[in-house]
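Entry for the shared binder. Reason: the reviewer on the internal report wants the predicted structure included alongside the sequence.
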Amino acid sequence: MRTNLTIITPSFDEEDSILKCINKVKIVMKENCPQINYEHIIIDNCSTDKTVEIVLEESKKDERIKLLVNSRNIGASRSMYMALSRACGDWIIPMLPADLQDPAEIIPTMLEKAVDGIEIVYGVRKNRQEKFLIRTLRKVYYRILRKLSNFNLQNDAGEFVLISSRVARSIIDVQHQNPYIRGMIAQTGAKFTSVSYTWNKREHGKSKSSAFALVDVAISGMVSTTYIPARISLFIGFITSGLGVIAGLVYLFLAIFSNQNVTPGIPTIIITMFFLGGIQLFFLGLIGEYVLSIHRQINPEPKTTFINEINF
């Protein structure tokens, strides 16, 4: 039987949430889309709890539940990217989180909107049940990234998005080693629409996305979707160097033609050295991010292997 829909859920130590996620998908699909033949791929990042055992048990009862277990923890983004290559559906949701902060109830609405040439249906998080500071930083980041990118990046949208198999193939063919999936989806330029919803507060367990992980994703998104920061660094560096030359010429002019004694200012020299040194270090770091991105692409790591595959 042809698979109409693939739903991907990355997991790591989600024993408190994963069964609820699986059952919620079953209920939503049965009640709203009984005609849709779907598969639910759980890709696990070497969980240390009973997540794998729970999914394995469910897969024995229902062949639509499929399990991939990575040989090591490679993070949610790379896990989703790997799972995309195993998806059989005509339509694919790259990430339905195990904690259901992105609600499964939105899936039927997404499917309804996938008509008339629409190949991408974004889930847009209009309201977020999280701390004010984090919510504000996310909104600011998305809008800055949208302004800097040269394609139509959807504000407040993540990987909870419905894409066609054609879009998925375009993403997989890139074979990116550090994928920013939401950006890659937008880069395809496919016709899109969106569905708005409230991003729920996590009910069970703790989020595996640390502050460091969020910053890492943000930097990856910036580096992989726009070259504008590098151009800005070049421009600021040019202006700063120009101002330094002008200041030097002014001091030289005063020293030669002024009747006043021009005493070299040690504090000024020290401040200037530290200022320019800081600017250089900052932009060297920025350029380094682009160099690292190139390095990852031309010197890829060996592909992570699955140590277990169920119902494939």
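Summary line for the report: The chain has a mean pLDDT of 82.
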